[in-house]
Design brief:
By secondary structure, the protein is α+β, with helices and mostly antiparallel strands. Helices cover 31% and strands 25% of the residues. The protein folds into 3 domains: 2-63, no CATH class; 88-213, D-amino Acid Aminotransferase, Chain A, domain 1; 223-380, Alpha-Beta Barrel (D-amino Acid Aminotransferase, Chain A, domain 2). Strands 10, 11, 12, 13, 14, 15, 16 and 17 form an 8-stranded mixed β-sheet that branches. Pfam families: Aminotran_4 (PF01063).
């Protein structure tokens, strides 16, 4: 094997010089096969096999296309980002984003970026939350914002501004987007500054918010779930809504690989915990709405709202009571109904868990009643849960 180091000449020129030198040393028409490594600044750039040197050296040079990585201006980067967005613009729409780094709102998806030295990017030091947008209103914005600030406190991230200003920024971002159906997702990071472990070099924490436009799915048919083999996060991290969602991602991928909608986590004591991004609830044979305790899992805003709304079903006699306590797997699997609760699914009935059919294997009446209550609450609930957006 032959090699050449060059730090000052273009690779294509280096290739030509090398092959000419190689050709002079091996002037036969059919030289033995040789593996040739080419180096750029001491690093292997590519390898090729040379068989015919004398007669085909120039043809080899002409056939090998060596492209240098371009150095782009800011304007060229933005142009390329816009072209990149065009390739998948039908996936999701992002009509507006706020960033405290540039101190404003942008409606250009190409500018919706986060600095690489932000510690949320390379250290996972950040928290987030989401509020649904329904009929031009932000649903449970204050409940989500309160949880967001609790998560930031546990993650030891200082606020860049007070709660009221943060709330106004979020509402203005939705207003600018003109989006009336979708969701608002927002993050708080320890901020950009360096690539070290400690955030001590970050000058200020950063707030980001983006509006995601979509129409809600009308599919509330029964689904299948499996017990997850992915370890659940420890309570400190499970109860904090941080951006460290790799366990959640693997949990969801495991379900999809097994042809199911979601996986169900068990806690360290073997009790039913939660799904990858939703809570779990059951209707027992005694007609009691049962939900796992929130001391080791995320306190779901949708789940807590369902608990409050379910009192209507108690009054109507459709269920006998509501209880939050530890739930065993055996108890969950023999329940009359099982459902997933969360902003992404609202109320989704589960008809099979692992190999166990839940109830009669059909969507249950309590899950349907709770779904109707949540949908009605989102459309015409009290001002405490519906914040109008001033478009």
């Amino acid at each position: 094997m032959a090699s050449l180091r060059s730090s000052s000449q273009p690779i294509s020129q280096t290739l030509q010089i090398y092959l000419k030198s190689f050709d002079q040393q091996h002037d036969s028409l059919l030289s033995p096969t040789r593996n040739v490594s080419f180096y750029r600044h001491g690093i292997p750039s590519f390898r090729c096999t040379v068989v015919r040197i004398s007669n085909q050296a120039q043809a080899l040079i002409d056939s090998i296309q060596v492209s240098e990585v371009p150095v782009l201006s800011c304007e060229e980067v933005i142009k390329r980002l816009r072209l990149s967005r065009e390739r998948y613009k039908d996936k999701q729409e992002f009509p507006a984003m706020y960033s405290s780094v540039f101190g404003g709102i942008t409606t250009d998806p190409a500018a919706m970026v986060i600095p690489m030295d932000d510690h949320m990017v390379h250290r996972g030091h950040g928290v987030f939350d989401t509020a649904l947008i329904m009929d031009g209103h932000l649903y449970e914005l204050d409940e989500h914002l309160d949880r967001f600030l609790r998560s930031a406190s546990v993650a030891k991230i200082n606020l860049p501004f007070d709660r009221e200003r943060m709330r106004n920024i979020l509402i203005q971002t939705v207003s600018t987007s003109k989006c009336r159906e979708g969701c608002l997702r927002y993050w708080l990071s320890s901020g950009p500054g360096d690539f070290l472990l400690s955030p001590s070099g970050c000058s200020q924490s950063a707030l980001y918010a983006i509006v995601i436009k979509y129409l809600y799915s009308s599919d509330y048919s029964g689904i299948k779930v499996v017990t997850s083999s992915i370890p659940i996060k420890p309570p400190m991290f499970a109860t904090m809504k941080s951006i460290n969602y790799l366990p959640n991602v693997l949990c969801q991928m495991e379900a999809e690989e097994r042809g199911c909608f979601a996986s169900i986590w068990l806690d360290s004591d073997g009790f039913v915990a939660e799904g990858p991004n939703m809570n779990v609830a059951f209707v027992t044979k005694e007609k009691e709405l049962l939900m796992p305790k929130f001391d080791k899992i995320l306190s779901g805003c949708t789940a807590k709202r369902v608990l409050a709304l379910s009192e209507e079903l108690v009054k109507k006699g459709e269920i006998k009571g509501v209880c939050v306590r530890d739930v065993t797997v055996e108890e969950g699997k023999r329940a009359d109904e099982m459902m997933l609760l969360g902003g992404g699914v609202l109320v989704r009935p589960v008809i099979q868990w692992d190999d166990q059919v839940i109830g009669n294997g059909k969507e249950g009446p309590v899950a349907q009643a709770l779904l109707n209550l949540i949908l009605e609450d989102m459309k015409s609930g009290p001002p405490t849960v519906r914040v109008p957006v001033p478009y």
